[in-house]
Amino acid sequence: MTPPDWSLLLDPPPFPPHGYARIADRLASLLGTKADIVFVQAEAVVALEAVAASLARPGLPVLNIITSPYGGMVGGWLRRAGAEVVDLTAEPGEPIKAEAVAGALDRHPQTALLSLVHAESASGILNPLPDILALARARDIVTVVDAVASAGGHALDIDALGIDVAVIGPQKALGGPAGLSAISLTPRAWALAERPEAPTGSILSLIDLKQGWLDTGRGPLPGMPAPLEWHAFAAALDRIEREGLTAVIERHAVAAAATRRALERLGLALWPAHGAPSNLVTAAVLPEGLDRAALLAALPAEVEITACIGPGTEHLIRLNHTGPRATPIAVARGIEALGAALRQAGVPADTEAALSDLPPRA
Length: 362
Ligand SMILES: *Cc1c(COP(=O)(O)O)cnc(C)c1O
What we know:
Blueprint: H1 19-31, E1 36-40, H2 44-55, E2 61-66, H3 69-80, E3 84-89, H4 98-107, E4 113-117, E5 125-126, H5 129-138, E6 142-146, H6 158-161, E7 165-168, E8 181-185, H7 187-193, H8 206-214, H9 227-243, H10 245-265, E9 269-271, E10 276-277, E11 281-285, H11 292-297, E12 305-307, E13 316-320, H12 328-344, H13 351-354
Parallel strand pairs: 2-3, 2-4, 4-6, 6-7
Antiparallel strand pairs: 1-8, 5-10, 7-8, 9-11, 11-13, 12-13
Helix pairs in contact: 1-9, 2-3, 4-5, 10-12
Bound molecules: pyridoxal-5'-phosphate.
């Protein structure tokens, strides 16, 4: 097979100066939100850092939920900006429990900001977002949700749930580019961000985005936008709109369910042991004594099966069925490769039985 002609990626036409507003409106419409949408022209961790740097202020009481290294990073950025951060850490590798959040909010009634990840690509867990946001709404707490992985893979009703800030990356379940991120913000979120000593003149400044783009009629973006990323974002939205977001989410749910059934038939225990799994990656427990690094190294490069990330996940692997991988064929290829690697490592694994309700692999 001849490799693609990557030189076609050179000399892209400029992205139309008024196309950014159109992208924002299409994304808002897909997600069904009336909140403002702004863009950070960088990968999603930069958008998360911008939110923390822009919303936190000295003394701001924050409850920061940690279910993966991402939550730990957000807590660090909030502290750096002077916030009084209380970390609430879930059992290793597991979702947070809504009761634990309620308890923490009762112990810290002054909490003004609550931050959490919706679904974790690091460990394949799903946090009980609606329950947690109901607790925050009842206490009038501004909420920040890292929906980088979950947007497109799970229902994310920003307005009905009362999410004040949602951070969205096109590159996971939405199947888009990795070099751009979107943030939705409500007036309550802007009220926290807008203050005399708010950071400006910085890639981390949401106020710069408001004053330089939202408040000036959403024309050209400040700086020098990377046209390839914007064309790719538009193409990803085309594809999602054609399929329909509900169908995209359903495709992820079907891929996750098929993966879980197949892993159980391979003889692996599913993760998390308690709480809900995500539709994005499925985590499984490796048999006792099996060398995870050696098993993963035996897999072909095109199969996306990797080590879970974060404390408490040292015995776990994750099968990625996000975005373009959320198809029965991609799931079947992953299971087939994993079955072969398990057998090679001396673990009996009946791939045919595991694949029985998945389509034949081409
Ligand atoms: C992938 C991911 C991020 C960060 O995205 P990058 O593209 O690595 O910057 C943040 N949070 C969650 C939950 C993610 O899955």
